[in-house]
Amino acid sequence: MTNERGVANKVSPATWIGLFLSLFAMLVIRYAFVFFVPEMTFAWVILKETLIWVSAAALLVIILRAEYLPLRSIGLGTARWWMSILWGLVIAVVSAAVVGGLAYLTGYGHGPGSAAFEKLPLWLITLIVFRAGVVEELFYRGYAIERLRMIGLGRFWSVTIPLVIFSLGHWSGGAANILIALAAGIILTGFYLWRRDLVANMIGHGLVDFVANVLPKLFS
Length: 220
Prior knowledge:
- By secondary structure, the protein is mostly helical.
- It is built from 9 helices and no strands.
């Protein structure tokens, strides 16, 4: 599918569909609920999370059954499990320090939608945190970066486009949330480009969100 310089000779239509899913599926789902659902009840949250997981599953099907590529092509299965855990912990510590510092400096309080989120049962919040770590890394790091390179974009745009979309996707939390998402995205992107271990990214991302959203409730 690519030549020796990594430029696509012929891009499969499945790859274009995969890129649309990875870059925009979460935004479409998230903000469809923001604009059209007056109040995020338990049932609506379950539906939203289900749609996001379905989008992730569809992307995996595209990779394996339409692109005929291994999951290693998006950074899955590229490292031993214990190394992924170790680097995931490193990512979590670095991200937590930066994100925590920015949250303190900006006075970020999770945005206007935090009240509805706080009312959800703890088990559902935990599942949402787990989903964020897995799906956002699958979409914005593993697939988007690799496939944008595959279609012929250089490293700069292959990294910048997903990073900008990922960051602006947090606009409902205000400018502070965009800044925090940008900082976290830069760290996660840097680790992915260095290690190319998507599992480590998923672990690190999930742990940061767990510490921020679940631990305070456990000890309150």
